[in-house]
Amino acid sequence: MKITLRKRNSVTSIVLFIYNLYGEYSGDYSISLDSLINYIQYFGKSESAIRMSLSRLVSSNIVENKKDGSRVIYHLTKEGLSNIESWNRGLSSFFNRYKLRTKQWNRQWKSIYLIDFNKSDQENKVVLEELVELGLGEVDNNLWISPYDMESEIKKVLADRSDINFLFLEGYISSNLSLSELVEKVYNLNELEKKYKDFIKQLEEKEGVIDEKYLSTGELLPILFELGWGFYDIVTSDPALPKNILVSWSGDQAVKKFRVLRGQLYSSITNLFAD
Q: Would you say residue 137 has pLDDT above 90?
């Protein structure tokens, strides 16, 4: 499921992106073939390539097609919807902890230790990915920490993995490292900061393109797709540390700018769906 979702710029990702937007707008996950071809062509894909890709998506049980009179309608399957839900969970998890960033922190750290956990096992890589998306950072081998209480969310991640044993710990942390040194070591904040600054430049460039010339609603689709991917890639590895720890953070500016631009793009793009 994650692998399908993360193939950037593939027709699969584009189709899921379109269904996500369309579902947000209409509450429905059924789109006609003609409309899908029209939307996806804005991404520079030919009609023949789109038809071939949709055929593969049907074979992969991401979508199913049915006749409705003279029209062919593509419905998102349960498997396809699970990909969208996975994407949305990652964003929702970030915004939930981002709200906590501005609240008073009690300086209590929460941690989980995975007992005899082999990170190199293929099936365990998804678990590691999920822990990062929950904002946890690895202090040492299999010891993960967060300034926020993520116990219930972590238990959901491990619900189907009865083979994984773990310990939850909570309390103050004492270290010969300063707090700033500790969080940099655990969360690699310098790299995250650079990614945010690059993303802010990308946002400003797109703002300039949109301001300088008229763009049809269809032409806005790949712009929102690109920005959405960029935002997702960064924030799903951002712990959104409390301001007690990290007062100045480029992530704050990036979140504010993205929310505004995303709202503007979404408002215009939905006119395409209304036609």
A: yes
